[in-house]
Amino acid sequence: MATRFIKVLQTEDLPVGKSAIVVVDGEEIAVFNYKETYHAVSNKCPHKGGPLGEGRIQEGVVVCPNHEWRFELTTGNSMQNPEMKVKVYPVRVRDEKIYIGFKKRDDKALGKDPSHVPATLNFKVPTVQKPRNPEEEL
Ligand code: FES
Question: Which of these, 88, 55, 53, lies nearest to 74 by C-alpha position?
């Protein structure tokens, strides 16, 4: 299935160890710079909707700020419940711009013209990630 990539941030907007929540046509996506690799997952925790973009990262796992459920950044798998998974989006970086990929079936939510960036694309101010273990590098 074809994937269309949409620019959501400049790399300078998201230094190592920080996260941002971008909104694409009403869908909140948490974007992380963890050890110089960018990850994007749904901002909505599948437990009770907590904002994963405001959670801390611990060994490649985002910890929901509400009840501390944990999700692997690369797979979206829950560490607590194998039945639960958070949606993971592919990320590309080109010319210092961060792009998030959407499957073709998501196009309805993104407007009819595939070359047109949705008018509602915006982002919130990046938040600082605090490692639980201060020895851990982000
Ligand atoms: S809302 Fe995320 S762990 Fe409960």
Answer: 88
